[in-house]
Design brief:
Helix content: 40-55%
Number of domains: 1
CATH architecture: 3-Layer(aba) Sandwich
Bound molecules: coenzyme A
Number of helices: 9
CATH superfamily: NAD(P)-binding Rossmann-like Domain
Distance between the termini: 65 Å
CATH class: Alpha Beta
Structural class: alpha/beta
Shape: elongated
CATH topology: Rossmann fold
Strand content: 5-15%
Order of helices and strands: EHEHEHEHEHEHHHEH
Largest sheet: 7 strands, parallel
Strand order of the largest sheet: 3-2-1-4-5-6-7
């Protein structure tokens, strides 16, 4: 799909993406790169990083990959330092690394809960914390008027409650809170913008196939989701918007990119019945208010 943004939107910028070698993270890497940014991707699996870097370079994108686990502070520091060494600056940090699996709460061990909190929430904080010195206004030779930009990939699971996702819901609630706190502190002190993106159901992702495994479903996935499925591209466009000057006045928000999915609930009545009967119901309740004894009328 063609991007509505200009190709030079992020010209000269450098971005580091955790989880940037696969899934939604990879598509964000592609689109940041296609819009002029140099891209460093960080992940745990060497073969996944190597093939992502090869694919990015084959599209003319200046890219490099680093092995690392966001749960390890030393890995975070090393990857950030290596990114700086390689590209000379850092403008954008995207925290897209995440862990997930379906599990009823009664079967989830505290260590399983902690594992996801460690990857999503602590990992996001660790990366932000280690990146601060490079993202500050004027840091590492940056001559732009503003500081850098951070995007934390979140979810909508915790807006209500989601079956078998207690660990991820808790982790993403923490991520959203981190987004707001850092936006407040670092936006004020260092002119760094910190925002989030909460994707809805996005087709062709590990998250989607893990969370809605076909073999556990009684109907095809498409019939279970009330709203449309999104594409990785939709999330990448939101990342371009938030990380570029198009979003320069946006700080501390988590942009929901889900086609309205989290708001969706089944209608109690068919629309036609409401159109026909609504006024009759109103008239009836005006004539005989519910809960008022007949003798008092
Ligand atoms: N159900 C219940 N518990 C599970 C589980 C599952 N499906 N998968 C892992 N766990 C528990 C383990 O039992 C363990 O707890 P324990 O020590 O009490 O037994 C704990 O989680 C850690 O598991 P481990 O396999 O050692 O962790 P890991 O660091 O190797 O894996 C995960 C991390 C669990 C998040 C793994 O699913 C992962 O890395 N996935 C890839 C990323 C991903 O999911 N991306 C999708 C993003 S939406």
């Amino acid at each position: 799909m063609e991007s509505p943004f200009k190709a030079e939107l992020l010209k000269g910028k450098v971005a580091l993406l955790t989880g940037g070698a696969s899934g939604i993270g990879y598509e964000i890497s592609v689109q940041l790169g296609k819009h002029g940014a140099s891209v460093a991707v960080m992940g745990r699996r060497k073969h996944v990083i190597d093939s992502a870097v090869e694919a990015l370079r084959s599209q003319g994108i200046s890219a490099i990959g680093f092995e690392g686990d966001v749960r390890k502070r030393d890995d975070a520091a090393r990857v950030l330092e290596s990114t700086l060494k390689h590209f000379g600056r850092l403008d954008i940090l995207v925290n897209a690394a995440a862990g997930n699996f379906l599990v009823p709460s009664e079967d989830l061990s505290p260590n399983g809960f902690r594992t996801v909190i460690d990857i999503d929430a602590v990992g996001t904080f660790t990366m932000c914390h280690e990146a601060l010195k490079y993202l500050k206004k004027g840091a590492s030779g940056k001559n732009s008027a503003a500081g850098g930009s951070i995007i934390n990939i979140s979810a909508t699971l915790h807006y209500t409650a989601t079956w078998y996702q207690i660990h991820v819901s808790a982790a993403k609630a923490a991520v959203d809170s981190i987004t707001r706190s850092l936006a407040l502190e670092w936006g004020t002190d260092y002119d760094i913008r910190v925002n989030g993106i909460a994707p809805g159901p996005i087709e062709d992702t590990a998250g989607f196939s893990k969370l809605l495994p076909q073999e556990m479903l009684s109907k095809p996935k498409e019939q279970i989701l009330v709203s449309k499925l999104g594409k990785k591209w939709d999330i990448a466009m939101a990342a371009l918007y938030l990380s570029s000057d198009a979003g320069k006045y946006i700080n501390g928000t988590t942009l929901v990119v889900d086609g309205g999915e989290w708001l969706t609930k089944p209608a109690y009545f068919p629309k036609e019945a409401v159109k026909q009967l609504s006024r009759a119901v109103e008239r009836r309740s005006r004539d005989k208010p519910v809960g008022v004894a007949k003798s008092k009328l």
